[in-house]
Amino acid sequence: MSGVGPQDSRGAAAVATPTTVETAAKRTDDGTLVGRSSSTKKVVFYVLLVMFALMYIFPFIIQLVTSFKTQTDANNNPLNLIPNPVTNEAINRLLDTKFPRWFFNSVWVALLVTVGRVFFNSLAGYALARLKFRGRNALFTAILAVMSVPGIVLLLPKFLALKYYGLYNTPGALVIPLVCDAAGVFIMKQFFESIPPSVEEAARIDGAGTFRTFWSIVLPMAKPALITLTILSFQGSWNELGHFIIASNKEDLYTLTRGIAGFASGGLGSGTQFPIKMAAALVMTIPTAIVFVIFQRFFTQGANAGADKG
Amino acid sequence: MPRAKSGDPMRQPVAGWLFVTPMIVILGLFLVVPIGMALWVSVSNWTGRGTPFGGSTQFVGLKNYTDLLTKQGLARQDFMTSLRNTFFYVLGVVPLQTVLALLLAVLVNQKWLKGRTFFRTAFYFPSVVSSVAISLVFLYLFAGSGAINAMLGWFGVHGPNWFADPRGLIHLAGNGLGVWDIDKPPAALADHKVLSLSLWEWIKGPSVAMTAIMFQVIWTTAGTFMLMFLAALQDLPTEVEEAAMVDGANARQRFWNVTVPHLRPTILLVVTLGIIGTWQVFDQMYVMSQGKPGKTTLTPAYLSYQAAFTNQKWGQGAAMAFLLFILIFLLTQAQRWLLRDKDEARTRKIERAQRRAARKAVSA
Question: What rounded mean pLDDT belongs to chain B?
Answer without folding.
Answer: 88
